[in-house]
Specification:
Length: 105
């Protein structure tokens, strides 16, 4: 597992740094810990599954679980296997840089 630390580029964001635990073969991030003022404020755990392709990086979420530590609020999202589709026939510009820039943050 790689342990990576990153910081947001926005000023006064809801966290100061994030520590992610990333699989060395698939590059899937299994855990992210978020910190504000030196204290952990949130944790997100993810379970990944292979898409059955030759590339070990071809992964999709099975579920993710998050917890906000200050409030105890928990969130669990399950992604059913039957909704995950591989090699769909999308227009070539579906995920262009222009398309991605239009997505609101």
């Amino acid at each position: 597992v790689y342990k990576m630390q990153s910081t947001p580029t926005r000023k006064n964001w809801w966290y100061d740094k994030r520590i992610s635990y990333v699989d060395t073969k698939t590059f899937a991030d299994y855990r992210s810990e978020y910190f504000k003022g030196g204290e952990m404020v949130k944790v997100i755990d993810r379970d990944w599954g292979s898409l059955g392709l030759d590339d070990p990086r071809a992964q999709s979420w099975k579920y993710w679980y998050g917890k906000t530590l200050a409030t105890g609020h928990e969130t669990w999202a399950v992604i059913p296997e039957e909704v995950v589709k591989v090699d769909q026939d999308w227009p070539s510009d579906k995920w262009s840089e222009k398309t991605l820039r239009r997505i609101k943050r």
